[in-house]
Fold:
Amino acid sequence: MARKKLEYTRREIGKHRLRPESLMMGYGYRPEWSEGSIKCPIFQTSTFAFKSAEEGKRFFALAYGLEVKGPRESLGLIYSRLNNPDLEILEDRLTLWDGAEDATVHASGMAAIATTFFSFLRPGDVLLHSEPVYGGTEFLITHVLPEFGIEVIAFPAGPRGRDAAERALRDKGIADRLGMIFLETPANPTNDLVDIAHCAELARKNSNGRKIIVAVDNTFLGPLFQHPLQHGADLVIYSATKFIGGHSDLIAGAVLGSEELIGKVRWTRTFLGTASEPWTGWLLLRSLETLKLRMTSQMKNARYVADFLADHPKVDKVHYLGHINEENPQHEVYRRQCIAPGAMVAFEIRGGEAEAFRFLNSLQLIHLAVSLGGTESLAEHPATMTHADVPVDDQPRMGITPALVRLSIGVEHPEDLIADLSQALEKV
Ligand SMILES: Cc1ncc(COP(=O)(O)O)c(C=O)c1O
Structure:
């Protein structure tokens, strides 16, 4: 199979530009490369034969950054920790949704985040980040990065975020050591928003001659309903385990951005060994074909669920982007940044942990499980599960209360979901 970038990048019919959902079935691959097979085969191989020793020498020189790629040259296949056809085609297709130049796929969302941090942060640097973030990311930031000499400073997602981020840079005297701004928006589990354009502006103002990377974890809304690169972010990060994979049957991650920045992530990925592998890559190619269908259906279902919960007497508060109205201080950011409200709904049940647990233990259709973005609906208790590592004293500050339940809405019939939620709430 010979893939040459310039041969397969056709994205239009005449002057008509094709949309990402139309390109998900074929972009980056041609049946004539593989015996006419409509689907790209799984290249379940660890290594690739070189045509000559000279070719092997050139491929390695490019992969290790010893020589510069020619204008019409693409890196040849070497070894599946560096590249593999299923992963390269997947990377090409992922770039289409976010309008990115390049992408890398990784063994997990955490591998994507960790590889990004290790690509751009160095001892002495400061990482400014929004909070809350997914519990695993929180652990990496607060426990692992400081071991490598990286100082981490948090600011809250939500309406207080703008001032707090500016104050942190001004009052803590860290502006000249700032290496990266990392955002998770909407935040897991509260759905609070962070203004990406404002953070990009902060990065630009505090650059001191050094490029400060703005990286956005877009797992909750992307790649359909939010495009951080259009708002000034430099990198978009995904747990592809979630909506991109979409069937709760694989673990993967991705990073997207400019060719230059992704080149650095790819280089780090090679030596940390955090790439994904062919079988997962193939599954993700299949998943991408139905991404829009799934995310649209999940988004519609979530509105039914959120409306039902908002009217329920045993529910105190619903955190759902589709309920952000003009009186909400996040309204302007939501309108500017998000295309649709997505399928994540969190709510506070009247009571506390005991009531939340009674509700979770009573569900019959919705599974009690962490993770999100799959075709089946899932429910979990952030305070004791995904965000269990966040100290109990810090949780309320982030909006993680004992009464908070997080739902990821799937593609079931919405009335069946509501029947299940209704009977479980009755048990409380
Ligand atoms: C927002 C977010 N980012 C990153 C991750 C980590 O992804 P993974 O489990 O694929 O490593 C998760 C996992 O739940 C998540 O919710």
User: Anything to note?
Assistant: The chain has two domains: 98-287, 291-426. The first strand starts at residue 12 and ends at 13.
